[in-house]
Specification:
By secondary structure, the protein is mainly beta. It contains four helices and 16 strands. An eight-stranded mixed sheet has the order 2-3-4-1-13-16-15-14. It has an eight-stranded mixed sheet with strand order 6-7-8-5-9-12-11-10. β2 and β3 form a beta hairpin. The longest helix has 11 residues. The protein is globular.
Length: about 270
Amino acid sequence: MGYFNEEFKIVLYVEDYQPALFFYREALGLLPNYTWNIVPDDNGARFYLAGAKLELVCNQAPAPQGRTHFMVQSTDVDKCFSIMSTFPDIAVVQPPTDRPYGARSFVVQDPAGNLVEVMQYQEDVGAAKQDAEREDIFDKELTVLFYVKNLEKSRAFYEGLLGLEKLHDWDAGPTDSGVRYKAGRGYVELLTRKPPKALGPGMVSLEADNVNICFSALKKKNAPVLHDIRDVFSGQRLFRLTDPDGNVVEIYSELEDIRDLKVAPAEA
């Protein structure tokens, strides 16, 4: 069973758009590949990040959303921290620290309270090219971290229902167990440990081979559908699910890619 293509996107809903845009575009150094400004309360920007995508949205979220924690791999974690430290008002949650799982990382908080963890595997620390361009400082891995109340229920959702590929899991006791999944060009990690800050439900977006077939199959399995399939102005057909902790999983196909329509869309 394989529903999904390569596209993977973390979606962050923010109330104050301009400070968030400044943080990701200037402090983190990301270049938006798409922006929109339809009305004062409907703005957004989409960034390429480590082969996947990150999207900022200033609009009404489809379900209550809180702060999200995500992790991105860097070619030079210390250089990245040094650059970000030059910007005023950067909220450092954790300075560069060697982790017990073989990585070095730091954590900062964006203006909306989302946690951005920048990491580098220990064997790569110190091996980066000194003349690397700033836009090349992130590569390979973008991971959303979901802190879950019941790991088995969450595994049943992501692994059993959605069929994501499990890469590895671990069990160091009830307060430190988890599992890591491949999701297109990105990753989803489920954790039972206590988060470094208070977090709320987040949102990820996955591209389906055929959203019509995917919706029909998941509906038959009694998937927790937030809203039925619909067409949206951005040229996509999508539906959304909620996982056991309230995180939203959006599943979509580009309308231009859909040829064999199996399910009629609802009114947008």
